[in-house]
Amino acid sequence: MYAIVEIAGQQFKVSKDLKVYVHRLTNEEGTKVSFDKVYLLDDNGTITIGAPAIEGASVEAKVLQHLKGDKVIVFKKKRRKGYKKRNGHRQYLTQIVIEGITTTGAKKAAIKKETAEVATEEVEAPKVKKAPKAKKEDSVE
Question: Where do the record's region annotations for Disordered lie (predicted)?
């Protein structure tokens, strides 16, 4: 079972016992967090898609730690101009572990074979009636 969920403005594919690094959350370490913006659920081949989110579905997680990501060096240069700028950046992150995916209230929308067959059948174009042709009259003899 997995889900596509929005956490801190980004979408992640999560499953149970998965550790994920997300943008810094305001929750304390050791607290539990619930995310309600679940966009897709897959339960052993039964796929449920939200419009835009699935009502009643949520993902439960626990905050493990707050940390900083790897250093990224930003270096800008314009050749033959003497322009060089060097800047560094470390992103603030939060490590969470997914404890479970709750699907209470979620409607299961499995694709039926009958619906797929109807969608693939060719639809006949409507018949168009042509206007009658005008008769030629003898104008000059």
Answer: 121-141
